Fold these 2 entries.
Entry 1:
Amino acid sequence: MNTKYLGLIALIGCLSFSLTYGDSPRHIVFALLDDIGYADISATGGQFPTPNIDKLREHSIILNRHYIHYKCSPSRTQFMTGRRSLNLGFGQLLTWPYTSTGGIPVGQPTLANWYRDFKSENIPKYSTYGIGKWHIGYAADLHLPHSKGFDHFYGFYQGGMDYITKEHPKSHFDFGSTALHGIDGYIQHPNELHYDFWEDGEPQYEVLASDKNIMYFYQDKITHYLDDFVENK
């Protein structure tokens, strides 16, 4: 890798910040926290301490109006494309379940595509990395992170996972009728185990076998990506 600038899309987590060095192009980090309420961080009244997020917020421009959808796939799609999700295949503002074959439409560039693929004299080439939750298409290669602009991706494709057991929520629930089943529209399947964790398209069995909190794996991988970037820039 001989690219000079770093673009890291941290999909694990509505925060964005950039680092600048003189007049050189920026190293950019985007972090997205979906399904989070306004008062879920301690700076706005949350019950749990979130000092790192609070510190970012303290030194940020705060957008305190409704700028994006509130839930998973629609929010991520708009964040990654800059386009309204209803114009990109969402018939309703709900997240994509594991049974969906949808994704960001083929040919629709993402932020990562712009940074990685569309180089010009005035736009340097970036190396792009994704960490955490994807949830914007998985059923075809053209929906996966590499096709959407990421040199590397480390995380899961679906809507969620247990931080310790690494099980996909389908291990316990399946989509059904809320009126009939009561628990957020899920049917319980207690005897099924499903796993979903990947690095650059390859299943990560050692992560699935570990009982270490997944956030520490993310921390280690981000450090690895940064070290790799510094060594090879």
Entry 2:
Amino acid sequence: SRVPGRARARARARGGVRPCAAARSSGGRYGLTGAYTEGEEDAMSDQVERLRRLLPPGVDVPLLVWRTPTLTRAPAKALVRSMLHLKRVLPGADLAALVERCPGLLDGSEEVDERALFRLRALLPGIDVDSIACAEPALCVHASGDAAGAVDVAANLKQLEAKGFPAEQLPRLIAARPQMLLRPYMFEASSLRHSSGTGLAAASAAPPAPGAP
């Protein structure tokens, strides 16, 4: 019998799902249907199942393979090292969501800027920075070796303050809207002042302090 046939039987026995089958079950949204020959599908199935075992539960592995095909050739040890590193530097992050947004963190083409994380934690005390980094990875993730592309968090905070956002309330506002720190030019204090839950409305309505004019 042909080797690909035996490979398919082994995959079925393990409960494996071929990437093209996964694409069919989801409407072929990843464009994998019919993309491989029979033998290539069997080899890809083994690689996808290997990634499923190595990556956090909930990761859409067919999506990762479609976006970053090189992951199927990444050594298992390298993938494990990458995941352990992410758990160390971002212990509170949703790593499944993070690697789906930034698959390059797995193959080394992208990296977490630990200095940027340190600055975020220093500038936003008491805030869950790991969740902010996961929601807006560009705040601390850039192409490997391209530290020049890091976001100037301190400058963006100053820009928000200059637009009328109270400095003492900025950490909480940014926790609710992490994109403020990435694109401060899109936000105005006057518009958020009338939004419920921001704290700005309450601040504007608070009575003046004793002795204030």
